[in-house]
Hints:
Structural class: little secondary structure
Strand order of the largest sheet: 1-2
Low-confidence stretches: none
Largest sheet: 2 strands, antiparallel
Number of strands: 4
Helix content: 10-25%
Distance between the termini: 52 Å
Number of helices: 2
Mean pLDDT: 86
Amino acid sequence: MSNPVATIIPISTVTPATVSCANCQACCCRLEVMIISDTGVPDYHISTDQWGGQTMLRLADGWCSALNRDTYRCTIYDQRPWVCREFAMGSDDCLTERAEFNVGRSL
């Protein structure tokens, strides 16, 4: 019997994309955001369905109405919904949304 020869396969380390305020494309601002607590979101940014459920209003382009389209920054940052406060920039959910919208390739 011969001794088996081990094949060494090099492992490359993939560095995850770093997301910062400078390169954020606000992909999360296309998601449906339920209003689950009162954080002071102005009424004109709230959509109420026939059962009384409230979400952030999204405009015809699919983006949140509170998003500044030029800067990709939230115009009501201090009053943003709880869901937005908990959605961490650079988290797995964030990176997934960025990949879905093909933003990660530009980093």
